[in-house]
């Protein structure tokens, strides 16, 4: 973990450093091969010259979709079940609350409900679940 570390006893004084180094080592050691394989596979499919024009944030948007929530698109592509409908009082309260949210709060809500904080490039109509296209559902 560090030079001479095998001869250093872990004490209350250096415990935090030891834990940080151990966690970093375990995390990095566990995914190095997988990460390298992912990158190699990615470049087999996508020419590296095409990717090089994007910075990290732009590439994330191209791959994962937009981070800006279009509330009307979200609402228009929502499915209601269990007796709920667009005019139901609870649903009106829900959308009123979401309208007051800033974009970060909307993204967090989307993350909580769907497991992803990004909207597909094509909008909420293209939202996908683990088994294919899946509309946002209340």
TrEMBL record:
Q: In which pathway does it act?
A: Protein modification; protein ubiquitination
Q: Name one GO biological process term.
A: regulation of dendrite morphogenesis
InterPro entries, alphabetized = E3_ubiq-protein_ligase (IPR050409), HECT_dom (IPR000569), Hect_E3_ubiquitin_ligase (IPR035983)
Q: Which terms in the Gene Ontology molecular function aspect does this entry carry?
A: ligase activity; ubiquitin protein ligase activity
- Organism superkingdom: Eukaryota
Which residues does UniProt assign to the signal peptide? none
For this protein, the Enzyme Commission number is 2.3.2.26
Domain HECT, by residue range, is: 1-138
Per its UniProt record, what Gene3D superfamilies does this chain match?
A: Hect, E3 ligase catalytic domain, Hect, E3 ligase catalytic domains
SUPFAM superfamilies the record matches? Hect, E3 ligase catalytic domain (SSF56204)
UniProt keyword annotations, A-Z: Ligase, Transferase, Ubl conjugation pathway
One GO CC term on file:
cytoplasm
Report the top EC class in one word: transferase
Q: Which reaction does it catalyse?
A: S-ubiquitinyl-[E2 ubiquitin-conjugating enzyme]-L-cysteine + [acceptor protein]-L-lysine = [E2 ubiquitin-conjugating enzyme]-L-cysteine + N(6)-ubiquitinyl-[acceptor protein]-L-lysine
Protein name in the entry: HECT-type E3 ubiquitin transferase
Instruction: Look up and give the organism this protein is from.
Output: Orthonyx spaldingii
